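Researcher: Here's a chain I'd like modeled. Treat it as a single chain, no partners, no ligands.
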Amino acid sequence: MTRPTPTAIAAELAARDDDLARLIELVGPPPSRRAIPVADRFERLATAILHQQLAGAAAATITRRVTERLDGSVSPSGILSLPQGELRSCGVSGAKEVALLDLAARVDDGRLELARFARLEDAEVIEQLVEVRGIGRWTAEMFLMGALGRHDIWPVGDLGVRNGWALLKGEADALSPRDLEPRGEDLRPFRSSVAWYCWRAVDVARESGGTLPR
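Model: Modeled as a single isolated chain. Structure tokens:
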């Protein structure tokens, strides 16, 4: 199957939805999507855990400390070999320490096979990831969209996506996840890019006084 180009995706979405077409004219094609190497997937998940519920600067500082403590390589064996309390000394909360150790143990003993993810359906990847302490559906969906380069993820639980959709459609209030879910059906199989456009709609509106140019 030929990998769709960002330009082709933008053209297809613009042809299907006039509101998206206007935004696409402003911001251009979506980013390209390509899976990262298997060797980098554990670090991406570990970083996602470290960044949860933290501002950018604080998350970056803690992640840097952990990476330095692991001699620059965030791996399951590295995390499992750290002395008890070492992660806490880097600023990692107790809950995140437990989550990182659970993630590392699952990858180390084979319960979570990151190399197999390319052969699994989206729902199967989510099912496996949410079994890990500290990883919920949103984190799993972001991993699918980013690290695995999946094109048809529709993260309706993301507030930015819901707010962006409301801006695109000129609706006064953001829809609930349940109500937004079916709105993406006509935009398969490129809903990851639709989500990206929803985020961009929020950015554009912020720069334009709270609304999208019409």
